[in-house]
Amino acid sequence: MESIDIYKVGLGLWKLPESECADIVYNAIKIGYRHLDSACDYGNEVEIGKGIARAIEDGICTRADLKITSKLWNTYHAKEHVELAFQKSLSDLGLTYLDTYLIHFPIAQPFVPFDTRYPPEWIMDPESETPEMVIAPVPLQETWQAMEALSEKGLVKEIGICNYTSGLLNDLMAYAKIKPAQLQIESHPYLTQERLIRLAKSYNISVTAFSPLGALSYLELDMAKQSESVLEQSVVVKAAERLNKTPAQIVLRWGVQRGCSIIPKSSNLNRLKENISIFDFCLSDDEMMAISALNINKRFNDPGDFCEAAFNKFYPIYD
Question: What angle do CA 147, 7, 250 make, to 5 degrees?
Fold first, then answer.
C-alpha cells in the first residue's frame, strides 16, 4: 500500500453553515484532516478561522501542519483590489499567511466595497428592479500579475487557478512569471476531464478536484437530481462490495488514485471519517477504467447554466 498523503483528501468548506462551521473544522482537524479549502465567497471564513485557532490552541496540530487555501472572488480581479481581498480573507481566517490562493473563476465583475456587501456574491445590485450579474473589463493577465505580487511579498506559498479551460491554461503559461502551482476543477466519474488534467500535469501543476462525488454536492441547491448520483452505478457498487467499502469511498479512492487531490464536503462526523479513510485499499486497473468510462461530460457547476437562471446573465466559460 502507498504511503498516506494527508493532504490528498481535504475538507471542502462550501455551504457549511456559519453556526456549525467552527466545530466542523475543529472536529475535522481532530480526526486527521490537514487540508482545508476555503473561499471568500463561502461567507464562513471567520468561523473557519475560529475552528483552526481552537485546534492549534488545543495542541492537535500546528499552523505548519495545515494546508489552507482561499480564493479571490470575481469582484476583486482589478490589480488594485487583489491584495485587498487577500488581506480580508487572511484577517477573517486569523492567519499570517496562506498556503494557497486561487483565482476562483476566470470571470471579472465590478468591485464591491467590503462595507457595501461581503461576500459580494454574483449580483451587482440586489436592490435593483432587475438585479443581474455585471461583467468588468479586467484581463486575466492583470489579475495574475497581482497574484504574483502576493507571492513575491511572501504572503502566500503558492498561487493558482480554478475553473480554467485548456485554452486559458495554455495562455496563462505563456505570460506567467510565477507559474500556477495548482488547478482546481470540478471532476468526478461523470466529468473526468482527462485531457485538462493531463495538460496541467505536463506543466507540473497539481490538480485538485472539487465536487468529487458529483451530484451529491448539488442536490440541496436543486442543481442535480438524485437519479444522477454516481454512487448507484453498478461498477461502483460492485467495487464497494468487493472491498467492503462504501460507494462514496470507492469514488473518492478513484479520484485520488488517478493522481488528483480531492476536497469532499460534509458536516457529518461519520462521513468526515469515511471520506478520509481511503488509503487502506486500491482499486484494480479494470475498476479504475470502468469508473472512468462512466464519463458523460456532465458538469454540475456551470456558469453557462446557473448565471442565466439565477443572475439574469448568460455567461458561459466552457464550450
Answer: 120
Q: Could you tell me the residue range of the domain that residue 188 belongs to?
A: 11-311
Residue 260 lies in a domain: yes
Contacts 24+ apart (CB under 8 A), 120-124: 120/73, 120/75, 121/41, 122/74, 122/307, 122/310, 122/311, 123/311
Query: Quick one: DSSP state of residue 224?
Result: S
At residue 116, the pLDDT reads: 96
Examine residue 109 and state whether it is found in any structural domain, yes or no: yes
Q: How far apart are CA 149 and CA 83, in angstroms?
A: 8
Q: Is the peptide bond before 119 cis (omega within 30 degrees of 0)?
A: yes
Point out the catalytic residue in the list 42, 76, 164, 218: 42
Q: Is the pLDDT of residue 119 over 60?
A: yes
Instruction: Evaluate whether residue 316 is within a structural domain.
Output: no
42 among known catalytic residues: yes
